């Protein structure tokens, strides 16, 4: 078997149904699906049973251990030559596996990562979240818009690697903190070829409300700093820019009192950035305004997450 698609899931049967339905339409057919239910109360087992005649499926229920270790269990069960990981809230375009297979063979890849996007049918809020997560103005293109594909650090919602990589390096090292970035760096250090395959994208139907989106962004900031426990060189100056963004916002009222000219200049810089966001956000004016909200929220929460993680003890056990 060529591909094993491994999906950790936690209390998301509706999303799993949409994901499995999209996998039924793949133009490349040599694959299995391994779904690991990670301690869900609202399980996807009835959904899986409904797809038994349409897909080659393995379903495994385990007590909650975190998405990284759920993926590890999926690899233990998998029969394919190459493992592909999706989050349960993704929808996969029909040509995904076909495109991936061509890229693996043409570029001699042992691992890959792919971007995420918003489908035209997603609601305005989902499109705004997608913009803030993928725009160069907010993330610098780290989620799939990089010029050099070899510099990409794959993310767990859309990534994969060969069985050979797994047998040599093992699985994910942590259940739920930066485990995807960690294994991406480990794969590259071992000399395997991991690159961005920009054509192998997924539609990421995020279900966050604003509060949960902020929590997620906060966790992403913590994750980036947490990775230093495994790879100290992985935290670079560019990852600290959201901290400066946060500190700049907090400094505005202080500057207004101590240095009014400086306060006006800083406010002008934020205004120019905001205008650039509005111009670049695709879709309706409502999507653009919501993108402004999600972009500010994301960077502020991420910056706070970085500060929080740096304040914790430096040794992780």
Count of alpha/pi helices? 12
Structural class: alpha/beta
> Strand sequence of the main sheet, in spatial order?
3-2-1-4-8-6-9
Catalogue the unreliable spans: none
Order of helices and strands: EHEHEHEEHEEHHEHHEEHHHH
| Rg, Cα atoms, Å | 20 Å
Most strands sheet: 7 strands, mixed
| DSSP summary, beta strand count | 10
| Outline | globular
| Straight-line N-to-C gap | 38 Å
Helix content: 40-55%
Mean pLDDT: 94
Strand content: 5-15%
Report on this model:
By secondary structure, the chain is of the alpha/beta class. It has 12 helices and 10 strands. The strands form 2 sheets. The chain has a 7-stranded mixed sheet. Strands 5-10-7 form a 3-stranded mixed sheet. Helix 1 links the parallel strand 1 and strand 2. Helix 10 crosses helix 12 and helix 11 crosses helix 12. 41% of the residues are buried. The mean pLDDT is 94.
What would a concise description of this structure say?
The protein is α/β, with parallel strands linked by helices. The protein contains 12 helices and 10 strands.
Compile the SSE list and pairings.
Elements: E1 3-9, H1 13-24, E2 31-38, H2 45-50, E3 57-62, H3 67-77, E4 82-86, E5 90-91, H4 96-107, E6 111-113, E7 116-117, H5 124-134, H6 136-139, E8 158-162, H7 163-169, H8 179-189, E9 194-196, E10 202-204, H9 210-226, H10 241-258, H11 260-280, H12 285-310
Parallel strand pairs: 1-2, 1-4, 2-3, 6-9, 7-10
Antiparallel strand pairs: 4-8, 5-10, 6-8
Helix pairs in contact: 5-12, 9-12, 10-11, 10-12, 11-12
């Amino acid at each position: 078997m060529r591909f094993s698609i491994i999906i950790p899931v936690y209390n998301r049967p509706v999303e799993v149904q949409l994901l499995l339905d999209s996998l039924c339409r793949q133009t490349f057919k040599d694959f299995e699906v391994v779904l690991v239910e990670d301690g869900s109360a609202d399980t996807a087992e009835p959904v899986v049973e409904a797809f038994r005649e349409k897909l080659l499926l393995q379903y495994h229920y385990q007590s909650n251990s975190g998405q990284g270790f759920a993926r590890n269990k999926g690899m233990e069960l998998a029969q394919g030559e190459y493992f592909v990981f999706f989050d349960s809230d993704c929808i996969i375009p029909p040509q995904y596996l076909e495109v991936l297979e061509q890229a693996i063979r043409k570029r001699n890849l042992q691992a890959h990562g792919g971007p995420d996007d918003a489908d035209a049918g997603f609601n305005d809020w989902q499109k705004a979240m997608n913009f803030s997560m993928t725009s160069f103005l907010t993330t610098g293109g780290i989620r799939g818009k990089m010029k050099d594909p070899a510099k990409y650090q794959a993310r767990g919602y859309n990534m994969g690697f060969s069985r050979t990589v797994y047998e040599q390096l093992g699985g994910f090292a942590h259940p739920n903190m930066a485990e995807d970035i960690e294994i991406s760096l480990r794969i590259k250090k071992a000399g395997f070829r991991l690159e961005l395959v920009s054509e192998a994208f997924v539609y990421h139907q995020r279900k966050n409300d604003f509060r949960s989106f902020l929590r997620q962004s906060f966790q992403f900031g913590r994750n980036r700093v947490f990775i230093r426990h495994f790879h100290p060189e992985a935290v670079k100056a560019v990852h600290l820019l959201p901290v400066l963004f946060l500190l700049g916002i907090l400094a505005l009222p202080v500057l207004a009192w101590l240095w009014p000219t400086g306060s006006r200049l800083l406010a002008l810089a934020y205004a120019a950035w905001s205008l650039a966001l509005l111009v670049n956000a695709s879709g309706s004016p409502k999507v653009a305004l919501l993108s402004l909200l999600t972009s500010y929220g994301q960077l502020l929460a991420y910056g706070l997450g970085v500060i929080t993680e740096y304040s914790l003890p430096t040794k992780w056990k």
